[in-house]
## 1
Amino acid sequence: MASVLRHSAKFTSGISSSLAACARNGTACAFPCHAFRHRNSSTSSKIRVDLDSSTGVAVMTLQGPPVNSMCMDFLTDFAISMEKLELDKNCRGLILTSAVPKVFSAGLDIMEMYGKGPEHATVFWRAVQEMWFKLYSSNMVTIAAVNGSSPAGGCLLALSSDYRIMADNPRYVIGLNEAQVGIVAPFWLKDNMVQTLGHRQTEKSLQLAQLYSAPDALKIGLVDKLVPEEKVLSTATETMAKWFSIPDHSRQITKSMMRKQTIDKFLSNRETDINNFANFVTKDSIQKSLGTYLAKLKKKKA
Ligand SMILES: CCCCC/C=C\C/C=C\CCC/C=C/C(=O)SCCNC(=O)CCNC(=O)[C@H](O)C(C)(C)COP(=O)(O)OP(=O)(O)OC[C@H]1O[C@@H](n2cnc3c(N)ncnc32)[C@H](O)[C@@H]1OP(=O)(O)O
């Protein structure tokens, strides 16, 4: 709870924060103040949200270096930001992107799963579920502007969005590589992938823990569009306009109809899934796999 309060994202007036920035720098404000009239920003330790009320588009920027890994603070910030946006009548669409060079998100923070007991695993997994659920069931139009590598939990963010735009860079990878880490994608994430790629492609992707380069991800339909890196955000904004041309109520009902089965299955198996995760991740053999994987990640640098 303390952590929730500590990291509670505070929406502040864009005008006052810009003025404050100008005042801090001791410079004259370079932008006319009316440019900020409709902007609201919130910043927490891991996530920044900028909502432009005049367009109805919020940009959520992941800003947790070195790799935007999803630790408890990240998950808490994410859930709070989503709740605020969902309740904000001025917000119709959300773009997810990263401020960390070359990485969209490295997925779950492995340190949250390594060397921890079942109580921690329970709290952590509930927060992971909540992240997926809030995004997958969002009323907003959600677009992932994937401007870097996006393995595992990073791919989860993209998969649960309505549309995925990725930087056209063959060095950036995306996919669900859980099996490589020695863990298993949960059933709701597997279902989410099946809806996107189909059963056969998902089976191959998950069993082989495949990470696809951006061009390969486009070929199999894991992302919808590739654009040069500097155009990822502007393309997401243009794409949003297309989705906004459909009346919200009919688009939202359609989305919820398409996603209902997966959501219902998730909700009725949620507690079992948490228990399975806590039992699974605390097993000696799984801890050993996680330890080996972590050591490999660290060794990469040496
Ligand atoms: C039968 C019952 C079944 C029950 C099943 C129930 C539940 C299912 C269980 C689990 C499901 C989990 C679902 C999701 C899982 C995940 O998300 S696991 C995370 C997987 N992620 C990865 O494998 C990515 C690993 N990272 C990378 O590949 C690279 O870091 C990169 C993202 C491509 C970026 O590369 P680069 O820019 O070169 O950065 P470095 O590799 O040098 O990394 C910088 C530092 O960050 C550390 N790090 C990287 N990723 C993570 C991470 N995910 N968690 C924690 N830390 C990470 C890395 O070690 C470096 O640290 P140092 O600077 O060396 O200290």
## 2
Amino acid sequence: CVCVCVCECKCAFTAICALWTLRPKCLETCLRSAHMHARFSSGVPPLRVPGYTMGSLAVVVLRASAVLLGRRNLSVQATTTEARKLKSIDELPGPGLATTLYWLFVKGYANKSHLLQGVQKSLYGPIWRSRFGPFDLVNVASPELIAQVINQEGRYPVRAELPHWKNYRDLRGQAYGLHVSSGLEWNRLRSALNPKMLKLQEVSAFAPTIHQVVGDLLQRIELVRSRSRDKVTVSDMTSELYKFGFEGISSILFETRLGCLQEKIPEDILRFIKAVNDMLTLSDIVILLPRWSRAVLPYWKRFVQAWDDLCDVAQTLINRRVAEIEAQLANGKPVEGMYLTYLLSSDRLSRAEVYICITELLLGGVDTTSNTLSWALYHLARDREAQGRLHDEVTSVCPDKREPTTAELSRMPFLKAVIKETLRLYPVVPGNGRFVSENEVVVGGYWFPKKTQFHLCHYTICHDEAEFVDAGLFAPERWLRGSAPTANHYQHHPYCFIPFGVGVRACVGKRLAEMEMHFALSRLMQHYDVQLEDGAAPVEPKTRVLLIPSQPINLRFLPRA
Ligand code: HEM
């Protein structure tokens, strides 16, 4: 038991029992040594520390670190023999730069990167490496491999480094917010945001507000269809649902109705919508370009302008509400609010952090729900049987076009299955990420150094015939136990379907998003028979960061008796 620390910290690290109280530095050293052992195992004698070979130390350290870091089922139960079999990142198969450029720009996958996942999986297997500009990605495309990454993601997972977002925040002296901050800082922000967003009971308190917004959506559809040439068609349903998504999330965040579903959309909102589009598009370009180009090319300036507009609108809305709250307090009136009031009064975040977190919630909460709802309506319009079944379910639980309560939603399994199936066919975030910066990890028999960026190929797993029977079909019943045609319709690995991500870093808006989508879809089904336009061509998805329709979805809304 005389293992000694060999790293710069020079602590008195001795004995196996000391492993349980190791300082992170020592743990790093041991993991690095274990990694070296794995690399040297093919012939080169392992490093020796008194009493242990590095191989046996690796087993002890890895087991201990699994406990220390609180990881579940750490896949690295490396025995000495297993450690010998581990391969290095450089041994991974994958396309070179020329091949990637060919696929993206000659074969036309630049805006179909969700499909490229499947193509590359068939060429290289379920784990491969791809390099493009500053990106060096390890792609994993099986539920087992995703589970291995997630199990080793550490206590404060990072999705991806966003240096250009961070540069913008630094430029403007802003707080970092959820996407840019990491470690304890990120955890502090999430701990402040989670309680009112992720607890079912808390989110249920938002139901009356969401119902009001859904009511406005129904009126808006009525207006738009009555103005159309055939009196029933709503063209570009996604853009109508975008307004619904914006109104829904901002009514919760800002506790104010903005009027996005009114005849004339407020100027501020139009500016915000444009800024979000610009920022997301430019974000993809700016990250590829070297820093020096920012002074020469126009993209960085436009990216900064888009963020400026985005933050400006969010701050104006927040300040407006803060002034109202202050006026109420000055008049001795009690202040009742939802999200913003809660954040401001909880004193857990600085005002600068509230600004950026609210902006990020707004950013995450609009396209996601609106695109998912668009695809759900599109498929229900194509599948008369599914639409009939959903209509029957909703009307049996809520007759006479009554608004469902959150408790009643739990008696609508088919409604939930429709949203799940939509998110399986069109996961709005088609590929997630984990940047494992703190630990070296083992995935799929490969040993990866710290700071490896993993790309979790969620889209291709959702479409894999080995995971889902008739994977290309819209079959909501696969999510219903007992009513699916075969048992394996609903049997799948838990990491096959993670549209909201997974673990502590998973989507903070999941519950709110689900409630919004369930309310909107159930009310639309009560009021309308939704149909496709005659002779409408199939609509394919495309990737623009998110998975979105490649052309407008036009739907006919025929009022139900
Ligand atoms: C259909 C609806 C939605 C889908 C499919 C979705 C999906 C996702 C996914 C996949 C992630 C990454 C999770 C991970 O890394 O494991 C994420 C993160 C996030 N989402 Fe959502 N989302 C939706 C709606 C919303 C809504 C309504 C909001 C706002 C209320 C929101 C706010 C966020 C934020 C702020 C993050 C970053 C969380 C963090 O990094 O700590 N999302 N979402």
